[in-house]
Amino acid sequence: MSELILASTSSARRALMDGLGLPYRAEAPGVDEVVSPHLSAEDAVRELASRKARAVHQRHPEAWVLGADQLVEVAGEILSKPQDRNAAREQLGKLLGHTHAIHTGVCLVGPDGQVHEAVETARLGFYALSAEELERYLDLDEWVGCCGSYRVESAGQALLERLEGDRSNVQGLPMVTVVRLLRSAGFRFFERR
């Protein structure tokens, strides 16, 4: 198989990919992440995942490139990465005590021009927190660089009251979907390296 490149420098996505045991490397896609505000959350993550995968693929046309993007949606509003602590407080205020969706788009582009795409959605319910508990969570800085202002692979898992869907999707890369796309592209698993 050709080289596999993850079009992301996210530590959470790399940790999930590491678990597969496939050789790969990570590279920052370096793309504009602004999309039309008229797109649904699902269409936005599909477009951004494709944009990231294609940007890295242009630099390495002989490789397979996996791109992903994620957005949180609550009551019809799309939440992306907060700019500062106040924005994170505001985002979490919309999520605490409520159910929201997290959508992750995945795009795999191959050396022969093949494109495999999918969008995975999980639904999460968060506990209602006191203002003091929310501030203690914000003090951990887990909100930095995270759409929705939380990380479920760290202390943020204590926010979770319920989860419907693939937990790895919430962490940034829906591995059931990723494995399906890689298998359909011909990748082989469990081989000695």
From TrEMBL:
* A Pfam family that the UniProt record links to this protein: Maf
The active site is formed by D69 (proton acceptor)
Entries under InterPro entries matching the protein: ITPase-like_fam, Maf-like
Q: What EC number(s) is this enzyme filed under?
A: 3.6.1.9
Superkingdom of origin: Bacteria
Localization in the cell? Cytoplasm
Q: Which cofactor does it need?
A: a divalent metal cation
Q: Which GO terms describe its cellular component?
A: cytoplasm
Instruction: Choose any GO biological process term that the UniProt entry carries and state it.
Output: nucleotide metabolic process
| GO molecular function list | nucleoside triphosphate diphosphatase activity
Major subcellular site: cytoplasm
Query: Which reaction is recorded as catalysed by this protein?
Result: a ribonucleoside 5'-triphosphate + H2O = a ribonucleoside 5'-phosphate + diphosphate + H(+); a 2'-deoxyribonucleoside 5'-triphosphate + H2O = a 2'-deoxyribonucleoside 5'-phosphate + diphosphate + H(+)
Q: Where is the signal peptide?
A: none
Q: What does this protein do?
A: Nucleoside triphosphate pyrophosphatase. May have a dual role in cell division arrest and in preventing the incorporation of modified nucleotides into cellular nucleic acids.
**Membership in a protein family:** Belongs to the Maf family.
Query: What is the protein name for this chain?
Result: Nucleoside triphosphate pyrophosphatase
Source organism of this protein record: Pseudomyxococcus hansupus
